[in-house]
């Protein structure tokens, strides 16, 4: 019983809108990831759920309780902070036990539960150290252990991996995924790293400037971005976006001309396609332009062109080579194209 | 933090400040509008062998009764502010109307107790503050280049003049400059003048008090500047060296700008502290030649039986006005920053 | 090339010499008065205030003549026993201890609230505190006296304690506020999510990390109460006097009786605790002075 419901939750500081009408049902046992660029309101949303930030407008429900007015301690959720928030004066053991102690869990259970949590995150060898004597990854795991020790109704994690190096990030990510599988606790996870979002999430919420842009499974988000923001934010590299004219199923923008688009829409549109979906062809193709630059990625070569004001990238085989300014052709078939309204940025068609 | 929690946490401190800082200021305002009761006089007939004389005497009992019935005294409006012991408006009018030139005006105004105290207080504030800061800065520069082991002891001795109780510090110096003390007799020997006494003349007394002021004020500037020196960006300093800056240019263009904000802070604190100069005047028994605003208040309150509450309150208010003027640049700046942000 | 570096080196050596000389001079100026007075407090008056030669104070010619030894504790005996200075010492101990403890208790609570509240009124309270901090203490005293007489609370130690606590608050609040700002907000927030109320988070998580700041602020509260003259001189009755007003009252009465050495001994006695304080807490004092500077 731990679905979380946000009903038009809004946060304003004076005139500044931190989060605008956030409306979402999060299912029990779901792993939800909040994704968005820096300053888009992810942390604020999470802090409102935790009760650390007042809500300007709207309602938050945990299970069947409306928690707007509840203190953080009465909400029965646990949170992993970006900077971990470990208690420097306590040992690892005491840190993990702290939630049990303040919540008056019977003393005889403490040891067992702390040990169990410590074991899950592989911390057993460090129990009597102080946080100052731990590495970043170990601190991170103490924070995790402290969150899971009391078996709350939900976990909130705010960029828990952002202070770790790349390698550690991969292994801890796997650990978090595994923990969620074992504990089956509803989890809200904040990140601005899309790989994390894609690998961990049941569903992803993409936010920008305090407004939810799209909610969906990682595949949805990747394959059917709801608007140009999501299209331009998700994927590496992000989707190519070209402004142009659409008339009778034919898109035209200088060096790009795509025919046979399955739409009845006419007028100004933005055409999107992913670098890996397009291919370099010796002749013809929908795009024909001089090469602007070529980068070797190891597993592929990335060719880019200037189209209008934008850079358009296309992935080619790893042994493909082209000179700068050499005229090259690329195939951008209608099936791989996404169309967006130029004005609103919203997706056109399915 | 919700308003309720905030209030619960801050309440004790705010109540303490309201009751014992804000309310006393109100009390000072009220008291300044009143003046002591006039003494109740009675006529007594004294009959002796040479007949009877009538004599006017103070009826102590009736005076005391009046005082206890109405301890504030009688209402005097703003009278106290303008009387001879304070702003002395009419005296100044007379002086301005009839005088022998500027020198005479200055001398006669200086003889009015309030202006005398004001002049000393301002001179003390604006001479001791910069000198103390410069001395502190120089000490900080020298300590910075001393070897690591010596720093501890050097800082220890440098802190002493600051943490010493002001009254005690001034007494210690006072005893030394006493004509029978070591410094006093050394000066007499130096100037070959056995009657030389720092207490005797006004300029020398002022000088002594200024020296004392710089002595106690310098350590604070020293500590703050010293701490600031530890955070001077090493990269900038080194690139200045590579760019060919001399030692003085490095101080001028790297170190001093870096310490700028600290200097503002030190100046503010020191202005506030020096403006209330008081203990050294008591310690040096300097009241004949130098008085300060705080000392005037103290003097009015100190009388054993006749404490001049009204007069003390008026001086206090004028002092507070001085403090506000002193702080006004900071307050105005804060206000501007704040309303810009909002 | 080598010529210029020689010049540079010579110049920097001159500079080093000048700066060392300057520092030595300053140290003498800073420390000598104390050493001299401590030394002199063990002499008789005709040595310490010698009409003949300052060397007498060094060698104690008259001290030897009058007491038979080059050092004498007469001044201390006179001050502590004959003139009841011990009583002032006890009073000072009570006053400073109470002021420090109470100031810190209400100051940490308030400073914490100010550091954690993002609301505007927190800012205005800090500005008001700054203005209050600037009030000369004697002007406040002139506000207290008459009401205290009327309420019949003049003269008691408790009254002075409360007043000193209040006068101390603006400074305490500022200093603790800046110390609390340096403690990450995440700490108390994780505690609250873990199940603490705001107060429990403050008590069990923040305060244990805050000890250095609390100790430093405590030192300054102590110094304020210990060094105060304006409040204690005006608000305490003769019996309840603390050391500083007691010393000042010595001056009035003793100087005439020719026993100025009582006052010298009392001054040295009152200075000794400050010496120890700086010796043991030098680092905290320095960090306290700079905490205000960096943040405030
Ligand atoms: N107390 C506050 N007062 C005013 N504005 C605030 C406050 N806290 C946050 N904001 C603003 O709200 C916006 C959202 O902040 P938030 O911390 O939620 O961003 P975020 O998505 O977590 O970013 P990041 O990825 O950098 O952590 C930011 O523009 C921030 O400046
Ligand atoms: Mg964030």
Automatic annotation (TrEMBL), chain A:
Top-level taxon in the UniProt lineage: Bacteria
Domain ABC transporter as annotated: residue spans: 4-234
InterPro entries (alphabetical): AAA+_ATPase, ABC_transporter-like_ATP-bd, ABC_transporter-like_CS, ABC_transpr_MalK-like, ABC_transpr_MalK/UgpC-like, Mo/tungstate-bd_C_term_dom, NA-bd_OB-fold, OB_MalK-like
Primary residence: membrane
BP term (GO), one: carbohydrate transport
Transmembrane segments: none
Keyword DNA damage in annotation: no
Membrane-protein topology: Peripheral membrane protein
GO molecular function: ABC-type transporter activity; ATP binding; ATP hydrolysis activity
Subcellular location: Cell inner membrane
One Pfam family named in its UniProt record: ABC_tran
Matches recorded under CDD domains: ABC_MalK_N (cd03301)
Entry's Gene Ontology cellular component terms: ATP-binding cassette (ABC) transporter complex, substrate-binding subunit-containing
Swiss-Prot/TrEMBL keywords: ATP-binding, Cell membrane, Membrane, Nucleotide-binding, Translocase, Transport
Keyword set includes Nucleotide-binding: yes
Family: Belongs to the ABC transporter superfamily.
Descriptive protein name: ABC transporter ATP-binding protein
UniProtKB/TrEMBL annotation, chain B:
Main location per the UniProt record: membrane
Transmembrane segments: 7-30, 117-142, 154-177, 204-229, 250-272, 308-332
Topology relative to the membrane: Multi-pass membrane protein
GO CC aspect terms: plasma membrane
InterPro entries tied to this protein: ABC_transporter_permease (IPR051393), MetI-like (IPR000515), MetI-like_sf (IPR035906)
Sequence ranges assigned to domain ABC transmembrane type-1 in this UniProt record: 118-330
Keywords on record: Cell membrane, Membrane, Transmembrane, Transmembrane helix, Transport
Location(s) in or outside the cell: Cell membrane
Superkingdom as given in the UniProt entry: Bacteria
GO biological process: transmembrane transport
Xref: PANTHER family: ABC TRANSPORTER PERMEASE PROTEIN, INNER MEMBRANE ABC TRANSPORTER PERMEASE PROTEIN YCJO
Annotated family: Belongs to the binding-protein-dependent transport system permease family.
Name the record gives this protein: ABC transporter permease
UniProtKB/TrEMBL annotation, chain C:
Protein name from the UniProt record: ABC transporter permease
Keywords annotated in UniProt: Cell membrane, Membrane, Transmembrane, Transmembrane helix, Transport
Organism: Devosia pacifica
Transmembrane segments: 21-39, 93-114, 121-145, 157-183, 204-226, 260-281
Family: Belongs to the binding-protein-dependent transport system permease family.
Membrane topology: Multi-pass membrane protein
Family matches, as CDD domains: TM_PBP2 (cd06261)
GO cellular component terms, A-Z: plasma membrane
Cellular compartment(s): Cell membrane
A Pfam family the protein falls into: BPD_transp_1
């Amino acid at each position: 019983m731990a679905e979380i419901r946000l009903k038009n939750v809004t946060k304003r500081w004076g005139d500044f809108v931190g989060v605008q009408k956030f409306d979402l049902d999060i299912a029990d046992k779901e792993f939800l990831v909040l994704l968005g660029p820096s300053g888009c309101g992810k942390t604020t949303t999470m802090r409102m759920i935790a009760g650390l930030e007042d809500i300007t407008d709207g309602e938050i429900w945990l299970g069947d309780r409306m928690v707007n007015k509840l203190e953080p301690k009465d909400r029965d959720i646990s949170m992993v902070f970006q900077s971990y928030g470990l208690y420097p004066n306590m040992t690892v053991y005491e840190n993990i036990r702290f939630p049990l102690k303040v919540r008056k869990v019977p003393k005889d259970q403490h040891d067992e539960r702390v040990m169990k949590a410590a074991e899950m995150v592989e911390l057993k060898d460090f129990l009597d150290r102080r946080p100052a004597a731990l590495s970043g990854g170990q601190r991170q795991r103490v924070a995790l252990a402290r969150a899971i020790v009391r078996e709350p109704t939900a976990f909130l994690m705010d960029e828990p991996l952002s202070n770790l190096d790349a390698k550690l990030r991969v292994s801890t990510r796997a650990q978090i995924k595994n923990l969620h599988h074992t504990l089956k606790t509803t989890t809200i996870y904040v990140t601005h790293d899309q790989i994390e979002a894609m690998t961990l999430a049941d569903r992803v919420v993409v936010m920008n400037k305090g407004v939810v842009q799209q909610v969906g499974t990682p595949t949805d988000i990747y394959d059917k971005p709801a608007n140009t923001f999501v299209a331009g934010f998700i994927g590496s590299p992000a989707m190519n976006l070209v402004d142009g004219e659409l008339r009778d199923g034919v898109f035209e923008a200088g060096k790009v001309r795509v025919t046979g688009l399955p739409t009845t829409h006419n007028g100004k549109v933005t055409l999107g396609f992913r670098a890996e979906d397009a291919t370099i062809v010796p002749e013809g193709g929908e795009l024909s332009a001089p090469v602007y630059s070529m980068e070797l990625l190891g597993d592929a070569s990335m060719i880019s062109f200037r189209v209008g004001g934008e850079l358009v990238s296309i992935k080619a085989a790893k042994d493909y080579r082209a000179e700068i300014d050499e005229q090259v052709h690329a195939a951008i078939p209608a099936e791989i194209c996404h169309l967006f309204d130029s004005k609103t940025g919203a997706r056109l068609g399915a | 933090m919700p308003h309720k929690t905030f209030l619960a946490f801050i309440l004790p401190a705010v109540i303490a400040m309201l009751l014992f800082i804000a309310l006393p200021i109100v009390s000072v305002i009220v008291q300044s509008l009143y003046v002591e009761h006039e003494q109740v006089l009675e006529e007594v007939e004294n009959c002796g062998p040479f007949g009877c004389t009538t004599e006017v005497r103070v009826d102590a009992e009736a005076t005391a009764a009046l005082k206890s019935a109405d301890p504030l005294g009688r209402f005097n409006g703003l009278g106290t502010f303008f009387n001879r012991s304070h702003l002395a408006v009419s005296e100044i009018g007379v002086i301005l109307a009839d005088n022998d030139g500027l020198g005479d005006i200055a001398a006669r105004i200086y003889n009015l107790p309030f202006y005398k105290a004001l002049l000393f207080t301002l001179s003390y504030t604006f001479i001791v503050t910069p000198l103390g800061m410069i001395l502190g800065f120089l000490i900080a520069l020298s300590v910075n280049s001393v070897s690591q082991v010596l720093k501890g002891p050097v800082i220890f001795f440098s802190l002493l003049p600051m943490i010493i109780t002001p009254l005690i510090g001034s007494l210690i110096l006072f005893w030394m400059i006493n004509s029978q003390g070591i410094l006093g007799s050394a000066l007499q020997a130096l100037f070959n003048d056995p009657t030389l006494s720092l207490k005797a003349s006004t300029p020398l007394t002022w000088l002594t008090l200024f020296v004392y002021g710089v002595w106690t004020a310098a350590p604070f500037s020293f500590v703050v500047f010293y701490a600031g020196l530890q955070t001077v960006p090493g990269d900038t300093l080194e690139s200045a060296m590579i760019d060919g800056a001399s030692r003085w240019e490095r101080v001028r263009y790297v170190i001093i700008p870096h310490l700028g904000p600290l200097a503002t802070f030190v100046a503010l604190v020191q202005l506030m502290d020096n403006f209330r100069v008081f203990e050294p005047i008591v310690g040096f028994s300097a009241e004949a030649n130098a008085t300060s605003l705080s000392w005037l208040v103290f003097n009015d309150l100190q009388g054993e039986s006749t404490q001049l509450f009204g007069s003390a309150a008026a001086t206090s208010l004028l002092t507070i006005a001085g403090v506000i003027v002193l702080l006004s640049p900071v307050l105005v700046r804060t206000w501007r920053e704040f309303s810009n942000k909002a | 090339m080598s010529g210029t570096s020689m010049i540079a080196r010579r110049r920097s050596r001159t500079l080093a010499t000048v700066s060392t000389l300057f520092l030595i001079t300053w140290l003498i100026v800073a420390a000598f008065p104390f050493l001299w007075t401590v030394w002199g407090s063990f002499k008789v008056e005709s040595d310490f205030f010698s009409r003949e030669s300052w060397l007498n104070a060094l060698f104690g010619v008259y001290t030897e003549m009058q007491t038979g030894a080059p050092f004498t504790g007469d001044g201390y005996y006179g001050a502590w026993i004959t003139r009841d200075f011990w009583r002032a010492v006890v009073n000072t101990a009570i006053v400073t201890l109470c002021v420090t403890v109470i100031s810190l208790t209400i100051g940490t609570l308030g400073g914490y609230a100010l550091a954690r509240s993002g609301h505007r009124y927190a800012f205005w309270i800090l500005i008001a505190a700054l203005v209050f901090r600037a009030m000369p203490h004697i002007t406040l005293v002139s506000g207290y006296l008459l009401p205290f007489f009327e309420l019949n609370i003049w003269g008691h130690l408790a009254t002075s304690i409360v007043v000193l606590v209040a006068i101390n608050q603006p400074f305490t609040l500022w200093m603790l506020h800046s110390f609390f700002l340096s403690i990450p907000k995440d700490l108390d927030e994780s505690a609250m999510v873990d199940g603490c109320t705001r107060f429990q988070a403050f008590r069990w998580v923040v305060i244990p990390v805050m000890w250095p700041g609390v100790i430093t602020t405590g030192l300054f509260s102590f110094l304020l109460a210990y060094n105060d003259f304006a409040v204690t001189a005006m608000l305490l009755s003769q019996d309840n006097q603390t050391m500083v007003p007691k010393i000042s009252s010595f001056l009035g009465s003793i100087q005439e009786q020719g026993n100025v050495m009582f006052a010298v001994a009392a001054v040295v006695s009152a200075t000794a605790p400050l010496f120890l304080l700086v010796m043991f807490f030098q680092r905290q004092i320095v960090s306290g002075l700079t905490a205000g500077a960096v943040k405030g």
